[in-house]
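tool_call: predict_structure(chain=1)
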Amino acid sequence: KDRVLAELKKEDPTATVDDAKITTFHGFALEICRDNYEELGFTKMPREINVVDKGRIVEELVTEHRFIGTEKLYQKNFEGVLNIIDVAILLFDLIGEHPEYLDDLDAAENYMAMLPSRKKGLVTSTTIDELIDIYPTYCEELKKENVILFSDMEPMMHQILDAHPGYLDKYGFKYVILDEFQDSNDIQMETVKKLAACKSVQMIVAVGDD
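tool_result:
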């Protein structure tokens, strides 16, 4: 905001950025999720989950099971956290970011491939399958506590945008500038397409590394 304001003041010393929405995609997604929290299954406006709460919820779920894996799966890592909890948190985040793999016959192998190499030796495909089985329960617990994951913000926003065509028209955007465009994911690209379809939008400019 400071950088944009500095540029504007070169042209007009009285300029402000009050009429501009300057945000990240995730920040924009969280705003839409909070505006539509009941439709998304929350009982009150959700807050972004913190690391401690996420770890607690995952720990409660995984301690009820004895997952198949190597002996090291139930040893503590250098941060003093059980490896199974660490792996579950990583996997659940990956599922949130890539839910399209859940319906694949090779779902476990796909998610296994995305785990950091230091974690792959702790689990088998069976471990991943078992953790996938409790993922819906994990999502239910998040809803009960009215917390939202960083990785869920954009998919939930897309759920609202798909259910309500033309939803973005209400913002009245005329010009859209997208920075760091090389890092865009599929959901963000779909959101850009929806922005481009807005009646008020006259121009979209994307800036990114080639």
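agent: The chain is about 50% helix and 5% strand. Proceeding to next step.
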